[in-house]
Input
Amino acid sequence: MSERFANELRAAIEDSGISRYRICKKIGLSESVMSRFMNHKESAGLSMDMINKLADLLGLHVTVIRPKRRPSQKGR
Output
């Protein structure tokens, strides 16, 4: 997870007006994982499924963009 994405997600959580406890209960996330994430402990073990649930709860849309592949070097 990029730092920019994580910061945007943290800001959305803070701005939501929903307590972290309530968010955790609604999406089935452990409070310890939420705490680690909010305290900038890397991705804190947030799975893509949890990120999607969190986004849905907060009214966000998550789009996964894969980097472009380089052309194959086979046959050179």
